[in-house]
Amino acid sequence: MNFPIIDADAHISPPGQGGNSQTLEQLLQSLDYAGVDKALAWLQPPYLREIDEANQYIYQAMQNHPDRILGFGWVDPNLGVSKALDMAKKCLYEYDLFGVKLNGAQNSYYIDDLELTGSIIEEIAQSGKVLAFHVGADAYEYTHPFRVAKIAKMYPELKILMVHMGGAAVPDLSDAAIEFAAECPNITLIGSAIDPPAILKAIKTLGTDRVCFGSDTPFQFVHVELAKYMALLKDEVDQEGLTAILGGNIMRILGLQI
Q1: How many CB atoms lie within 10 A of CB 222?
Q2: Confidence grade of residue 32 (pLDDT, cut at 50, 70, 90)
Q3: pLDDT digits (tens, 9 = 90+) for 184-237
């Protein structure tokens, strides 16, 4: 293919995390095997409660492989709002990462609880960078799509990624994710850990410029998820739409040139 393919949902962890954690080197091997050019990378839960070292690992990964890794920070306001805000600033300005991710499911908080997240979201908005939310059914009260929409309407210029678009567990909230994204043009869906019919519905409802390919590696296989997208989109979108979904959209959102 003569356009970059980007996995918009990849997790990595420093070595020694155990379990099914994935290091940078393992991610790069998976990308090479799948024929994927770049990955948007953030931390992999579960992680150590002290996440400074892990965010630094993302930073070093991007520094060492700027042509492959598009790094995002991760903060947990339950560790202290002031601490989380300081970490967000470090990720945004010192590390110059592309944005920050909030995961209310993993860290057990309502993402629209502005006493916890308000100052962090405000800082991301002021920075001009990107805010990503885990939006899955695994903790749907904490991360329901309507909570993302509330924030999107408060900050209409803030670019927001809705990761998993309401999937990742049951009950499937993808219909709500699509409906709220239709109301908020600053929301883009990442179709990872979600069934193919929901991805196709999102594309047909919102257009090819509002949905991004993502694998959720290492919880899923990059090459398998890419093959799923290729089979799903065959005869459904034109070449321009395919280019957008598989990489062009995330490049545009991050302010990069194809």
Answers
A1: 26
A2: very high
A3: 999 999 999 999 999 999 999 999 999 999 999 999 999 999 999 999 999 999
Which is it for strands 130-134 and 99-102: parallel, antiparallel or unpaired?
Answer: parallel
244: helix, coil or strand? helix
Residue whose tokens read 């979201």: 121
pTM check: above 0.90:
yes
Contact of 202 with 181, CB cutoff 8 Å? yes
The whole-angstrom separation of Cα 113 and Cα 98 is 23
E strand map for 164-217: 187-191, 211-213
DSSP 125-175: HHHT-EEEEE--GGGHHHH-HHHHHHHHHH-TTSEEEEETTT-SSSS--HH
Tokens of 186: 């600053």
pLDDT single digits (tens) 213-228: 999 999 999 999 999 9
Residue 40's nearest CA partner among 90, 100, 118 is: 100
The structure tokens listed for 205 are: 């409802």
Place of tokens 């690992």: 57
Asked if residues 52 and 87 have their Cβ atoms less than 8 Å apart, the reply is yes
Q: Which two tokens stand for residue 209?
A: 């410029």
* 121 touches 131 (CB < 8 A): yes
Spatial separation of the C-alpha atoms in residues 23 and 15, rounded to whole Å: 6
